[in-house]
Amino acid sequence: MTSLARPPFALSAARQLAKQAAHGRGGHTTTAINNNPALRYKTGGGMGPRYSTATSPSAKPLSLYTWRTPNGRKVSIFLEELKAHYGLAYDVHPVDISTGAQKAPSFLRLNPNGRIPVLVDANRSSGSPGHAVFESGAILLYLAQHYDTLRTFAADPQADAETYSEVLQWLFFTHGGIGPMQGQAGHFVRAAPEDIPYAKKRYIDETKRLYGVLDVRLKDREWLTGPDKGTYSIADMNALPWVTVHGFIEIETLDEWPNVKGLHCEQAWVERAMERPAVKAGMQVP
Ligand SMILES: N[C@@H](CCC(=O)N[C@@H](CS)C(=O)NCC(=O)O)C(=O)O
User: Fold this and answer.
1) Ligand 1 atom with least separation from CA of 175
2) How far is the CA of 179 from the centre of ligand 1 (A)?
3) What residues does the GST N-terminal domain cover (predicted)?
4) CA diameter of the chain
């Protein structure tokens, strides 16, 4: 999706940063966060940011506090897309949620809900450490608004209001549907202290129903939003990491939903998305 009205600075900044990226000024730095309440912000081992962001050559890299879960991965995928497209820099701070690091007072100051992911943007706040954004859907929208200056991954709200509305609809569909339902299924299948068959069935069935909605939407389309066959957007990034971990809730295959992931079908949505280098990279962060 491309905005009809592209600010000239965005074009020149994007070209400059694409050139930087082509010259190998890419990558992110990683700083582990353990359960120590003194949760750290600074990158460790003297590793600083290696390139600047899309908005200004002096801009600081963004900081992503995250872990290896679908809600974390959707944001790392988008940050990798922005890195590939604009040369945007970000630092990764792993928050091992199995140790309770997400409940440390210093983390709760970033997200009072005590959950990953959190994005901290030192460019948009004079205070330290910067502007913190929690809730994965809100982070995707924030990044799209401020850093996807060419409106490549989410339609422009003014210039293409209908497509933007579609992006919001499919974002909220995942955020309010697949995420919570599949998350609860995961709890009752994997973590509940007692076996409650009704709860497992309820959340697995609801997750399957929602995959069915994706399947209908993706019939004769490549992506969830946009005219004709659609355009890859944050709506796809938001749903993909959930669907790819279907095995966690004992949904053995996606064969029931051929437009989501076809039986030996190379044209289905999951394969199409997973072919993208930024998706592959984002799925490995942290
Ligand atoms: N609605 C939130 C959900 C975040 C969430 O549930 N994060 C999980 C990992 S996917 C987490 O941090 N769990 C640890 C905990 O519940 O303490 C979002 O989309 O960001």
Assistant:
1) 19
2) 10
3) 63-151
4) 59
> Does a structural domain hold residue 153?
no
Q: Rounded to two decimals, what is the model's pTM? A: 0.83
| Rounded CA separation 184/170 (Å) | 20
Asked whether residue 154 is domain-assigned, the answer is no
Last residue of a domain, which of 97, 113, 147?
Answer: 147
Is the CB of 238 inside a 6 Å radius of any atom of ligand 1? no
- Quick one: which atom of ligand 1 is closest to the CA of 95? 12
Ligand 1, atom 1, lies closest to the CA of 135
Does 50 share its domain with 80? yes
Q: In what order do the strands lie in the sheet with 90-94?
A: 29-30, 90-94, 62-66, 118-121, 131-134
pLDDT digits (tens, 9 = 90+) for 156-186: 999 999 999 999 999 999 999 999 999 999 9
Digit-coded pLDDT (tens) for 189-214: 999 999 999 999 999 999 999 999 99
Residue 3 domain-assigned (yes or no):
no
Ligand 1 within 6 A of CB of 184: no
